[in-house]
Amino acid sequence: MTQINSKNKDGFKPGPFEYHEEIEVEIFSLTNMGQGVARTDDNWVILIPFCLPGEKVVARIYRNQKNYSEADLLRVISPSPERVSPECNLFGKCGGCQYQHLNYSEQLRWKKKQVEELLLHMADITFEVDEVTPSPDKYSYRTKLTPHFNKPKEGKVGPIGFQQTGRKSLIDVDECPIAHQIINNNLENIRKEVTQNADSYKRGSTLLIRVDTNGKIHTKPESIAIEKVGALEFHFPAGSFFQNNASILEDFTRYVRSEAESSERKYLIDAYCGAGLFSLTAASAFEKVIGIEVSVHSIKWAQFNAKINNISNTIFFAGKVEKLFTNVDVNGSKTAVVIDPPRKGCSEDFLNQLFEFSPNTVIYVSCNPSTQMRDLKLFLKSGFQLKRVMPFDLFPQTKHLECVMTLSRDSS
Question: Is 97 noted as a catalytic residue in this protein?
Fold first, then answer.
């Protein structure tokens, strides 16, 4: 497996290695980006993708950084017993997956380890992380795919797919093994329609392909998709955010609910409620549930979903960013709050409002543990204690995961 990197010799920074120097090293760890980590005898770090701990490999240097180098994997001399054959013939070229070559149980073990290391190095705490909850579906799980293509040239569309590993250019993807099979069944025709209408594109574009619980394909952002989570049904615009691994959603939402209700609070606030996923799946455990969202459009769908599921103890309103808790009429000491912010994490302004509201319990759901750790330091500083950390593998074969932290002001 050879990853061809776009960095050329003219831009190469002098360092401990020459440009395209080939080295033989042993991999001893993985980064949270899925790269293999090697060290030279004088403790210089080299990052190499698609390697596994314990493997001896030959790699080719393409970049020297201030305190480490980056290299392409040329070949594996002694493979790890945990190495498996990837299901995708583009693995190693397409940047979408990082772990298809790693046994699934080991994927989970490394993801847990990486959360523990982030807690230690970013939040300065040692904490026992729960075993990662596995995804029922290891492949064919993604219900949403967003391939890209660049501006057509001379009336022709180039590659339609995803960014290549380590490069800005795109790689053509005509099938994606982690995408739902119905998406793959429709991908050929969707790609063909784009190429046949190349003249209608004045610039590059990102395609939307979503399959819903009824097997319907949605390619327009305003098209209304339907997803079932347990006994509940959620309607939402196909282009809006909704978790895209349906196979794990019932376990995922059940856990968030159990952590919130175990605090024995009467009220629940879902501060990034979207279409109401956490609000409605937890509603039966609370006297009253309040969903807050800055998007008025999302609030309308949360209200609609409450209605069609006959849930009457919820209220949803659009809050202004600077005054999210203004219309909240419950006492923080009797309230659990669920937050599920975007990848960039919570703004300091939002956290200050949350701390002023002073809920007893916060369930922090994050798709980016790095920004979650950054925010965790502010929670700890404001008097919260970390009670539990549970990762969920919503994204098998990739470096990504969801991490759920339970924080409380109770010392017990």
Answer: no
